[in-house]
Write a structure and sequence with these properties.
Length: 389
């Protein structure tokens, strides 16, 4: 099987053979030089988006506004973006317009950090207009140009600084860090959707704890209050295999005034997080029990337990939770042998809420071993208790 780099060179060759300039750029070049894995390959070119689309059989205009076409070749895909100059930035986040350019230097100068502004041609020659190679060698994250201007243009770059600490184990250049410390309140203007996206990357890179320590030290967390206690705690406590769900639930639990609804997660994710937070509160000094494990489900209980375990290492109930779950007489309401449908058929009761209350009672009695999940037993109990029959 060919590597992604080999196929990427084919993409460059097609562009070059048609008279365009084309380079690998950004994160891929940085990671290639650091000999670390890169998830994707970005290509920058003088070809206009329509020209790129005409040159390849399978393409998708994934970011047409910003000049990005995804090119699919063999088993890989590549984001091919036209050289561009960014216009004025709006709301400390997005350029109001982009202008396509005919030279690579313009494109490199709009990028965030020197280590992210390296380009590589088809023969492996590096274009290094901003001393990125030297910073890569020194292990330094340094904004291109004036950091105050760069962070004011786009405040998300403040968080991106810490993403690269987490990914590369680098330190932050002195002027860049001063500027981060001055401008972090601009993060209040960034939508929490973007903040979620950034943290979802940061926490999965190997040096996330170092990044958390630096977020604390630079006071950047003061501008993300819902996450501040959680990040402070995690900066000194290891959390093995931390998922996004673990991270946000722990942070939201630790920030007393947090309103999960303010965050742009799906309703399902928000409900899961709220359930986890409730469970942590109930079980932090107490045991999980059959009813909790049935009501919240295995996965949610295990996530809450993982968080309890980090908050208090002696509180690991995972084996107990799994064995209780396996031993539950029912796992869902539909496992009941006597159902709402039976109540409808056997009685005059038509009120769905009332029927629901009876079903809840049956579930409770079964889970607490007061009743067996048997049609005749449940029918007899229901008729006697609720219908005097
Ligand atoms: P990762 O490996 O974590 O994906 P990356 O460097 O590939 O890191 P991306 O967010 O995928 O980061 O962006 C690709 C490139 O686009 C960056 O290397 C950088 O050159 C440029 N870039 C991305 N976002 C910004 C931004 N907000 N401001 C300036 N340049 C940016
Ligand atoms: Mg990337």
């Amino acid at each position: 099987m060919k590597t992604q780099l080999e196929i990427g060179k084919k993409v460059l060759k097609v562009l070059i053979d048609h008279g365009h300039l084309a380079y690998f750029v950004g994160g891929f070049v940085r990671d290639f030089l650091l000999d670390t894995e890169s998830s994707d390959i970005d290509i920058t070119t003088s070809a206009l988006p329509e020209e790129t689309m005409n040159l390849f059989e399978i393409t998708r205009p994934t970011g047409l506004k910003y000049g990005t076409i995804t090119v699919f070749l063999e088993e890989y895909s590549f984001e091919v973006t036209t050289f561009r100059n960014d216009g004025f930035y709006l709301n400390n986040r997005h350029p109001d317009s982009v202008q396509f350019s005919t030279n690579l230097h313009d494109d490199l100068s709009r990028r965030d950090f020197t280590i992210n502004a390296l380009a590589m041609d088809i023969d492996g020659h590096i274009v290094d207009d901003f001393n990125g190679l030297s910073d890569l060698k020194k292990g330094i994250i340094k904004a291109i140009g004036n950091p105050n201007e760069r962070f004011t243009e786009d405040a998300l770059r403040i968080l991106r600084t810490f993403r690269f600490v987490s990914k590369c184990n680098f330190n932050i250049d002195e002027l860049t860090i001063d500027s981060v410390m001055t401008h972090h309140p601009l993060l209040h203007k960034i939508s929490n959707e973007r903040i979620i996206q950034e943290f979802s990357k940061l926490i999965h890179y190997p040096y996330y704890q170092k990044a958390f320590q630096m977020l604390v030290k630079t006071h950047v967390i003061d501008s993300i209050p819902d996450l501040s206690e959680g990040i402070t705690f995690l900066s000194t406590h290891a959390f093995e295999n931390m998922s996004d769900l673990h991270f946000y639930s722990l942070c939201f639990y630790m920030h007393i005034d947090c309103n999960v609804d303010n965050w742009k997660f799906s309703n399902k994710q928000k409900l899961t997080m709220q359930n986890i937070i409730n469970l942590i509160e109930v079980t932090k000094d107490d045991s999980f029990n059959e009813l909790l494990i049935y009501s919240y489900g295995l996965e949610t209980c295990l996530v809450a337990n993982d968080i309890n375990k980090v908050l208090n290492p002696s509180n690991d109930q995972s084996k107990y939770i799994k064995s209780v779950f396996e031993g539950l007489p029912i796992h869902k309401t539909c496992d009941l042998k006597f159902k709402g449908q039976d109540i409808l058929e056997l009685t005059e009761l038509k009120n769905a809420f009332k029927i629901g209350e009876i079903i809840d009672d049956l579930v409770y009695k079964i889970i607490t071993n007061d009743l067996k999940n048997d049609y005749d037993i449940l029918k007899q109990y229901t008729m006697k208790t609720y219908f005097n029959r």
